[in-house]
Amino acid sequence: AQKVTQAQTEISVVEKEDVTLDCVYETRDTTYYLFWYKQPPSGELVFLIRRNSFDEQNEISGRYSWNFQKSTSSFNFTITASQVVDSAVYFCALSEALISSGSARQLTFGSGTQLTVLP
Amino acid sequence: NAGVTQTPKFQVLKTGQSMTLQCAQDMNHEYMSWYRQDPGMGLRLIHYSVGAGITDQGEVPNGYNVSRSTTEDFPLRLLSAAPSQTSVYFCASSSSTGVGSPLHFGNGTRLTVT
Fold it and tell me: To the nearest whole angstrom, how far is the Cα of A13 from the nearest Cα of chain B?
């Protein structure tokens, strides 16, 4: 069965510090996708990034970067020069095919990391 | 562009009452799903649908029913509410049933069962 572990329940940093959110996953599939979602205090879930299992290139988008390492089954997320607006719960998620229903798939979420950026 | 719309935003029920959480999307997405979010547990899949007339169970389906009569709508029914169903419920959709399609989420419904 698939599983996503976000061991950091809460992280607090001061503005302008860099912060890395850890994500470790388990899956028996060779084809899968990894995602990061952001949930700000307003409660909505915002899609940040998707990475497939065949692409281990790191990705950078502005102050955000993602490090995907299949050897350690990790997909970590780094925010550089954090800002107060980055305060949110961040979820890592894994998607693989549901064996019982063929093409349909289930997104499995980690328990989330609450990031607080202090001014 | 409304995206995924959930109603109501908040609801309080007494144990044993029934209700329907509404979800509609205007993106012509085939795949729709319902998740519940509980503290420390992330989001867990309740039911999903890969198209009109097709539904299936997720990880935590007990106590919930769904139907998909149109592509746009995917209501979630609580048959007899229990305090364990106190949670935040999210509806989500995506353009494909394929593994890699990102989910678009509604803004959630916060349900309290007393």
Answer: 21
